[in-house]
Specification:
It is a single chain. This protein is mainly α. α1 runs antiparallel to α2 (25-40). The longest helix is centred in the last third of the chain and has 42 residues, at 46-87. The chain folds into 2 domains: 8-42, no CATH class; 44-88. The protein has helices at residues 10-19, 25-40, 46-87. Helix content is 77%, strand content 0%.
Length: 88
């Protein structure tokens, strides 16, 4: 079950801080920005997750290809050692 958090309305918060809180515009903007960062700063978006998934997939394929290359190299080396031992 997913819950939806409504977006933080910085404009409304700034207006409220100016009108009811006695803050000047610069202070109200700084407070609203800090609250918005606190609410959204640590939250991963779907785009963030998609980028991470792509990076992990790419890294996984690199690891698989390196492993296949190493196994192929080992087989080639072992084959040459066996063939040279049989020849001589």
């Amino acid at each position: 079950m997913t819950t939806h958090t409504p977006p933080f309305d910085t404009h409304r918060t700034i207006e409220r801080l100016i009108k009811s809180g006695g803050f000047d515009k610069k202070q109200a903007e700084a407070i609203a920005e800090a609250v918005n960062d606190g609410l959204t700063g640590g939250v991963a978006t779907s785009a963030d997750i998609a980028r991470l998934e792509t990076r992990l997939t790419n890294q996984t394929w690199k690891i698989v290809l390196i492993g296949v290359g190493m196994v192929g190299g080992f087989i080639a080396y072992a084959t040459s050692v066996i063939l040279s031992a049989m020849a001589g």
